[in-house]
Specification:
20 helices, about 550 residues, alpha/beta, two-stranded antiparallel ribbon
């Protein structure tokens, strides 16, 4: 090993240079593309135009329905080796355009794929429900024998001695792990940049961010360099990147998918816990991931995981008329920041599609939204930045802004360390959170009087953010996602449309709800956002993941039929 896990403070940049050199050496030379012009902002078609992929490899990687990929792998129409090769090549091409990868272990993946092909040939059946499917992982999931840097110089050279529990379960399900993806330093950003691997770009427009902290995943999957990836979410880190990059993303309740063995920021902070979930090119990818993990009884391997098996009845909406004549709530805004026109249009299109399909949509007005955000932030900052500082032992500075032009010495207010909270103060926060969750639950249940179904709303439709993908360094507070972490409600991102300057004109406003509302309004320029994806967020109560996914299928079908 050419690096040490505890390099001298004066040498942190040297260790980064060595790590980048080793990463570059892991790129197969035959898959390198010619220099991409800096002014080429849209690189979505680069894999198709660069000439490195065969027609068959293009067909494989542009099959967006994960269930179709799994069927073709299961019947040996496509071998695991050729599918893994196709996605590996496309991932390497994507990386050269948007800088999305951290660890690259394609030789290991191809060996695994060959073993799966041999298993299928010998046994006449698949090794598991994800047989032969390439799966990418956010740089938080240790794989035995590989480094897990998570954007910190101090973690360069730290080699995992065993797999995280989820890694083990993915392998048992037949998946082929082949790359890990980039994250922001500390993870606690809605963008993706760190000193070790640099900045990840949005393939729709490289001047814009792919979101964060699972931005490496979203950029890779948007370029079809992976059909399915796994991320984490403590404030929007799966949902915001999915929304920014036009893919499906799902944050389940925090203890439904096993987290034991992952590396994390704020590790041990359990008041607003991290949730693990998929980012993927299709809704079938979300359900395939979720079902394949739950069917292995993950609570037998992770002590925090809720012992709740997959419920086919809930997914089929058996107690909700089989998905006929559902009732949705719709939250147009949270009351302090008005979303940009494309966001409101996506909500309106979704409402129209559902009503055209025979469903009902009622208004939901957000109350005390800021209180839920404040609870989460207080928990995140409760340690007085000790967690961040413990990971900066090499002399590497803390990144205080995602803005490429920011003064590194300028510390924004939300990054100024607070005095650590006492245990008693934490207890008071938890009591406040409990009261807020009860109040929200009562409001949800009270919608029974409006729905006409004899039950509360089946799900709530709301924005994922007040904007589509923004220029680097311009993300603001994740107010439309953090609330659901505080509530521990599952949230699903469904792509709806793309920004169209002809219909998404900037409105003239003289009155604003807040200073932040005024700032977000000033950010909007239809030409800057032109063509970038816009999604909606679908939310349901705690531990009702199967219901949210079943209802999500109804929404997705209605949008496609419109």
């Amino acid at each position: 090993m050419s690096t040490s896990p505890n390099p001298a403070a004066s040498q942190w940049q040297t260790y980064i240079a060595d790590k980048r050199k080793r990463q570059q050496a892991s790129l197969p030379r035959a898959w390198l593309v010619e220099c991409i012009p800096e002014d080429q902002v849209d690189v979505l078609n680069l894999p198709r135009t660069c000439g490195l992929l065969t027609d068959r490899e293009l067909e494989i990687t542009e099959t967006t329905d994960v269930s179709t990929l799994l069927k073709k792998l299961a019947n040996a129409e496509w071998s695991a080796v050729e599918v893994t090769t196709a996605f590996s090549k496309r991932a390497i091409i994507a990386h050269q355009a948007v800088n999305c990868l951290t660890e690259i272990f394609i030789d290991q993946a191809l060996q695994r794929a060959a073993e799966l092909d041999a298993y299928l040939k010998e046994n006449g059946t698949v090794a598991g429900p994800l047989h032969g499917l390439p799966v990418s992982l956010k740089d938080q999931f240790p794989i035995k024998g590989l480094e897990t840097v998570m954007g910190y110089t101090a973690w360069i050279g730290k080699v995992a001695e065993e797999d995280a529990v989820l890694v083990k379960l993915l392998l048992q399900a037949g998946a082929v792990l082949f790359v890990r993806t980039n994250v922001p330093q500390t993870l606690m950003w809605g963008e993706t940049y760190n000193n070790v691997f640099g900045r990840t770009l949005n393939p729709y427009n490289r001047r814009l961010t792919p979101g964060g902290s699972s931005g490496g995943e979203s950029a890779l999957i948007a370029m079809h360099g992976s059909p399915l990836g796994v991320g984490t979410d403590i404030g929007g880190s799966i949902r915001i990147p999915s929304h920014f990059c036009g893919i499906y993303g799902f944050k389940p309740s925090s203890h439904r998918i096993p987290s034991f063995g992952i590396v994390n920021s704020l590790d041990g902070q359990e008041s607003v816990p991290t949730a693990l979930g998929p980012l993927t090119t299709s809704l079938s990818g979300v359900t395939a991931f979720f079902r394949s993990i739950l069917d292995q009884e993950p609570w037998r391997y992770c002590p925090n995981t809720v012992p709740k098996p997959w419920s086919e009845d809930d997914y089929a909406l058996k107690n909700r008329g089989g998905g006929v004549k559902l009732c949705f709530g719709i939250m147009w805004d949270e009351g302090s920041i008005k979303p940009h026109p494309p966001i409101l249009r996506a909500l309106a299109v979704t409402k129209k599609a559902l009503e055209a399909a025979g469903h009902k949509v009622v208004e939901w007005k957000s109350l005390k939204h800021a209180d839920y955000i404040a609870i989460a932030r207080s928990n995140f900052l409760a340690d007085g930045s000790q967690d961040y500082n413990s990971c900066l032992t090499t002399g590497e500075p803390l990144i205080n802004s995602m803005d490429p032009n920011a003064d590194p010495n300028d510390i924004p207010a939300f990054r100024v360390p607070r005095r650590p909270l006492t245990a008693f103060q934490m207890w008071q926060l938890n009591k406040e959170k409990r009261a807020l969750r009860k109040e929200f639950l009562d409001r949800w249940e009270a919608t029974t009087s409006e729905t006409g179904t004899g039950r509360p709303i089946d799900a709530l439709i709301c924005p994922a953010a007040p904007y589509a993908a923004v220029p680097h360094g311009q993300t603001r507070s994740s107010i439309y996602t953090i609330i659901w972490n505080t509530m521990d409600y599952p949230g699903l991102i469904i792509p709806v449309t793309r920004v169209n300057p002809e219909v998404d004109a900037k409105p003239i406003r003289e009155d604003f709800w807040s200073e932040e509302d005024k700032h977000v309004h000033s950010m909007y320029d239809p030409d800057i956002y032109k063509g970038v994806p816009v999604g909606i967020q679908l939310v349901g109560p705690t531990l009702q993941e199967e219901v949210v996914l079943g209802v999500g299928g109804v929404v997705d079908a209605a949008l496609r039929a419109l």
